[in-house]
Automatic annotation (TrEMBL):
This is Peptidase, zinc-dependent. Transmembrane segments: none annotated. The keyword tRNA processing does not apply. InterPro entries: MetalloPept_cat_dom_sf, Pept_M54_archaemetzincn, Pept_M54_archaemetzncn_arc/bac. Its cofactor is Zn(2+). GO terms for molecular function: metallopeptidase activity; zinc ion binding. GO terms for biological process: proteolysis. Pfam families: Peptidase_M54. It comes from Candidatus Sulfotelmatobacter kueseliae. Keywords: Hydrolase, Metal-binding, Metalloprotease, Protease, Zinc.
Length: 186
């Protein structure tokens, strides 16, 4: 069975990682384990933006990929950006082994609202499945309910499901045979 390793990037609560570790296999037919080490995001911090460059973190993650890793998913507690956007919720290597998601802007507290751990977990799962989908060469989907729908604001994440639509699932199944690859469940 394919294995997704969760890599804490910065300080990430163990309970949040555990919930994600249990939820990812419900959406993708994969095993999921938490790595016992964390990646320091500080080398990717850019003071002029007061944010962390996600592509730089992804490059550093790529150096950690081991042969037995099917996918390496970084879970960050910091505010991410790429130069052409003000912020990103995550980034992935299209068709590659690494993806990164930040829960910094997924928290209700970021928007001045009361803490909601259940909503944070849902949003983090949806973003994780979305970025893992990019590692499977999936592009953004026009179906707003699909996990692969584009989200430029947290409200759009709330509309999405944590599963792939039939079309996206078919694309993955046609590229990756179930016998040696990933089998996605809707």
């Amino acid at each position: 069975m394919n294995l997704v390793h969760l890599l804490p990037v910065g300080k990430v609560e163990t309970s949040l990682l555990e919930e994600l570790r249990a939820a990812i296999p419900e959406c993708l037919h994969v095993a999921c384990e938490i790595l016992p080490v964390a990646l320091d995001p500080d080398p990717s911090y850019h003071a002029e933006r007061q944010q962390y460059h996600s592509s730089e973190i992804l490059q550093r993650m790529h150096a950690l990929v081991r042969p037995e890793d099917w996918r390496l998913l970084g879970i960050a507690d910091v505010d991410l950006y790429i130069p052409i956007l003000k912020y990103v919720f995550g980034e992935a290597q299209m068709g590659g082994p690494c993806a990164l998601v930040s829960f910094h802007r997924l928290r209700q507290e970021f928007y001045g609202l009361n803490r909601d751990d259940a909503l944070l977990t849902q949003r983090l799962l949806k973003e994780s499945i979305h970025e893992l989908g990019h590692t499977l060469d999936l592009r953004h989907c026009q179906d707003y309910r699909c996990a692969m729908a584009s989200s430029h604001a947290v409200e759009w994440i709330d509309l999405r499901a944590s599963t792939l639509c039939d079309s996206c699932q078919s694309q993955v199944q046609s590229k990756v045979p179930a016998a040696g690859g990933v089998s996605l469940r809707i």
